[in-house]
Amino acid sequence: MVFKRNGILYRINNLTQALDFVWEMKDLSKALKTGTMDDSFLELCDHKGKIWVLECVILGAKVLLNLWFQNKTELKHFDVRFSWEGSVEEFRAAVHYLAAAADVQRFFRVYRK
After folding, report:
1. Which residue(s) pair with 104 in the sheet?
2. Which of 4, 7, 9, 63 is the most exposed place for a label (fewest CB within 10 A)?
């Protein structure tokens, strides 16, 4: 998983339950379209047990995303590692492309020889 803003990349390698994350984001996008989305927090983990929390906040016509990472020295403390703010349309477009990429990847994985 790669988060990108203004050419700055933040990568999470070997994300576990990646498709579940994609479908959660798709559900958030649908809720945002209907006006029923509340602020949300999604937990992300990698294969080594590292934990991130993706915070999705609605600010009127804007969406704010913060990706928090568990501090190695203080396990109860999280630091913001990535932040993005954009319009609802930008958020929904990004989620659409994420879901489309997940569908394509799954298609090729099933039918690849």
Report:
1. none
2. 7
